[in-house]
Amino acid sequence: MAKSFTTITIGESLGFKGGLEQFVFQVASVLKERGHRHVLLYERTTGTDEDRYKTVFEDSAHIPDGGGVDDYRKFLDEICERWRPDVALLHKSRNCRFLEALVARMPTIALIQDHFLYCLRETRYFPVSRKICTRPLSWKCLALGCFMGRPLRYGCLPTFYSLKERRSLLDVHRRMHRVVVLSNHMKSELVLNRFDPDRIDVIPGHTQIPAREFPPVSDDSDIVLFVGQVIRSKGLDMLVKAMTLLRNHARLRVIGVGSALEANKKLANTLDINDRVEFLGWVPHHEIDKHFEDAVLVVVPSVWAEPFCLVGIEAMARSRPVVAFDVGGISQWLEDGKCGYLVREITPEALAARIDEVLGNRDLAREMGAYGRKRAAEEFSPGVAGDRLEQTIIRTINQPKSQNS
Q1: Where in the chain is the domain with CATH 3.40.50.2000?
Q2: Is domain 223-379 given the CATH code 3.40.50.1970 in the classification?
Q3: Nearest Cα to 359, choosing from 296, 291, 295?
Q4: Could you give the CA distance from residue 149 to residue 161 in angstroms, rounded to a whole number?
Q5: What confidence tens digit (pLDDT) does each residue in 80-104 have?
Q6: Chain centroid offset of residue 380 CA
Q7: What's the rounded Cα separation, in Å, for the pair 175 and 274?
Q8: Which of 176, 183, 280, 399 lies at a C-alpha separation of 20 to 30 Å from 290?
Q9: Letter string b/e over residues 200-236, b meaning 16 or more CB atoms within 10 A of that residue's CB
Q10: Under DSSP, is residue 332 helix (H, G, I), strand (E, B) or coil?
């Protein structure tokens, strides 16, 4: 058993909200079970299940707003004096001055789970066409109009993004002692943006494998399930449109909230399928199993380059096939034709065709579900991910200081 260590874990939020917060919680849980300790530093609270979130951390502290590098050095000195951390695990922060102080203070591992470092809009696709971008961060992003985003909530003026600030963040992340990403796709994105490939470890996401085997897909079910944030990049509108093209009868159940929720409700109404689409809103994570059990399949219609997408392996662990657009890191876990289907053409028609194949062949759905559970247990369990991450952390702690710069 590895010698225990203490981490400073940096995340944007205290509490549950989306995939990032769930991932931070899962990583801390896996390492805590192995006898390691964590202190959470956060920038804001979510107001959702914060007490349960705190259970995997020894302590937590809010990162002060608006400090200089010297202020953050003093803040980190106080944290380090109390907890004597061996390493920092950085999940996400946009506070460049804090990060400068952090990298100078202790060995730091960045766990990069999205595109915010090298994409001004963070979606990694062009705003009108939603075509996926393959360029590195550069002045060309300005020429393509990607410095401008949607207005903030209740605002009318567009949001403007700073190339200079993003370049500063990118630079400090390049100086992290190691970087962990969830997929080979994410590694290629970082290499494109001049990260040292020898400092990047690919450790796919993980999920708890339920002790009980879920019942196989039922012949009587007609539920197509969507679980995730309801924002434009998640492509729920593609799935709502696909529902009108199915040959087999099905009902869509949507679990999640977000800025595109009302637009998708209006779309379902416009397409006259309100009686076949159920919007449940936010559902506590521990209650979602019932909905997986009800479903024939889970659909991941994301149109952005998903770094990984945890809901896919959660569905697999519960013996449900997955249909998803072949974007980003989806193919890291979805074996086409074995645990579901990768849809290479990003259209409602192509999505509907693959959904129909699963709906119309329940033996195939059960076969895919069984294979998916086996693959999830072998490749994406907490034990497998914990082994890999633990090795990366220990290697970073033991690395000579001359190599940690």
Answers
A1: 6-206+382-403, 223-379
A2: no
A3: 296
A4: 8
A5: 999 999 999 999 999 999 999 999 9
A6: 14
A7: 51
A8: 183
A9: bbbbbbbbebeeeeeeebeeebebbbbbbbbbbbbbb
A10: helix
